[in-house]
Amino acid sequence: MEPRSSGVRPMCALTLLLVSVCPLCCRANWMWLGVTPPDDPEQLSCGDPVLSARQRELCRRKPFLLPSVRDGAQLAVSECQNQFRRERWNCSTTREPTAVFGYELTSGTKETAFIYAVMAAGLVHSITRSCSQGNMTVCGCDAHLRGSGGSETASEAWQWGGCSDNIQFGTWFSRKFMEHSVKNMSSLTSYTLSTMNQHNSEAGRQAIERTMSTECRCHGISGSCGVKTCWRSMAPFRRVGSYLKERYEQSIQMSNRSRKKTRKKDQRRPLNKHQLIYLNKSPNYCLEDKRRGIAGTRGRRCNRASSGPDGCNLLCCGRGYNTHVVRNIERCECKFVWCCFVRCRRCESMNDMHTCK
Ligand SMILES: *[C@@H]1O[C@H](CO)[C@@H](O)[C@H](O)[C@H]1NC(C)=O
Ligand SMILES: *[C@@H]1O[C@H](CO)[C@@H](O)[C@H](O)[C@H]1NC(C)=O
Ligand SMILES: *[C@@H]1O[C@H](CO)[C@@H](O)[C@H](O)[C@H]1NC(C)=O
Ligand SMILES: *[C@@H]1O[C@H](CO)[C@@H](O)[C@H](O)[C@H]1NC(C)=O
C-alpha cells in the first residue's frame, strides 16, 4: 500500500473558501482542473467547486469520467502553453480558479478563441483515449470499422483491425459538459461572447476528427505485407495543438452587432465550423496591465538570433533587452563502468541569456 499524501491542496482549500464565502460573485471555471497539479485522485469529486451546478449534475451521473475531464484539461493547458511559449501572450494561468487564464478567458479575442477550442479538444482526446484503452463500459473502440478496406486489388487489400478510436462518445460528452445556455446557433441574430465560445469549442472538437489518420501494420512473413490491418487513430495532441494554432492565426473577426446589418459581408465569406472566430481585437501584450491580468513581456527570455515572435526585437516590443551570463553545470562525458554504473564528469559552460527590459 502506498502511503497517502498528507499534503492538503492549498488551492482547493482556497477555492472552497472563496466559493463558500461568496457563491455568486466567484464562479469558478472547470478549466481550473487543468491548472492544479496532478495529485491524489481520491480528492477529485463531482462536488468540486470549480464545476458549475449543471456540470456537477452531469458528473454525478457519470462519475467515472471525472479523471478524464481533469486529464483532458491538463493536456489542453499544457498544449496551449507549448504552442504559445514563444509569443508575447504565453497562455500563462492565474492563481485564481475563477479566472484561470485571466483576462483572456473572457476578453473575446483570438486568444479566448484558442483557449475554448483547445479545452474542448482536450476533453474529446482524453475521453476517447480512455475509451480505446477499455477503461469505460459506456464506450470502446469503433465497431463500425470491420471487414476489408482499401481497394479491390489484392495487392492493396487490407482489413480493419485493432482498435479504431471512437470519438463519438468523447465528442458528445465534451459538448454536453461545455454547453452554454444558447442552443440554436442558426437562429442567432448576433454574436455574443457565449455564442463565440460555443462556436470555437465546436471547432476544437472538429479538430480531433480532422487530424485523425488511418494507421496500418503488416503481419507478413519476414516483414512482407501479406496481411495488413489498419485502424483509425487520433493524432497526438501536439498535432491537434499545431492545427488549432494555425486556425488561431487565420481566425476571423465577427461583428457583435446584429447579423442583419452584416449579412452581405457574411454571405461573401461564409463561416465554416472549422474556423475560429473572435469579437474583439487583442491588446499587444507588451506592457503589464494588472487590471486586465496581462503580465507584459518584461523579464521574458528572448532569442537574439531569431526574427520570429521569440526574437528579442518582437518579444520585447522594441524596448531592448538585458544580457546576463549564466553558468551551466552539466553531467558530461559519461562512461559506463563495468559493472554496473555510469561515471560522469561535471562540465561547466558560460552562456548568454537575454531577457526583455
Ligand atoms: C509567461 O510569461 C510570464 C512573464 O511575462 C512568466 O512569468 C510565466 O512564467 C510565463 N508562463 C509560461 C507558461 O511560460
Ligand atoms: C486506464 O486504466 C488503467 C488501469 O486502471 C490506467 O493505468 C490508465 O491510465 C487508464 N487510462 C486512461 C486513459 O485513463
Ligand atoms: C434553430 O432555429 C431555426 C430558425 O429559428 C429553426 O428553423 C431550426 O429548426 C432550429 N434548430 C434546432 C435544432 O432547434
Ligand atoms: C461589441 O462591440 C462594441 C464595439 O462595437 C464593443 O465596445 C463591445 O465590447 C463588444 N462586446 C463584446 C461582448 O465583445
UniProtKB/TrEMBL annotation:
Q: Which GO terms describe its cellular component?
A: extracellular space
Q: Where in the cell is it found?
A: Secreted, Extracellular space, Extracellular matrix
Keywords assigned: Developmental protein, Disulfide bond, Extracellular matrix, Lipoprotein, Secreted, Signal, Wnt signaling pathway
Under the heading InterPro entries, the entry gives: Wnt, Wnt_C, Wnt_CS
Name the Gene3D superfamilies for this protein: 3.30.2460.20
**GO MF terms, alphabetically ordered:** cytokine activity; frizzled binding
Comp. bias intervals (Basic residues): 257-272
Q: Where is this region: Disordered?
A: 252-272
Range of residues in the leader sequence: 1-28
Its GO biological process annotations read: bone mineralization; bone morphogenesis; bone regeneration; canonical Wnt signaling pathway; cell fate commitment; embryonic skeletal joint development; hematopoietic stem cell differentiation; neuron differentiation
Q: What does this protein do?
A: Ligand for members of the frizzled family of seven transmembrane receptors.
Q: Which family does it belong to?
A: Belongs to the Wnt family.
| Protein name per its UniProtKB record | Protein Wnt
Provenance organism? Cyprinodon variegatus
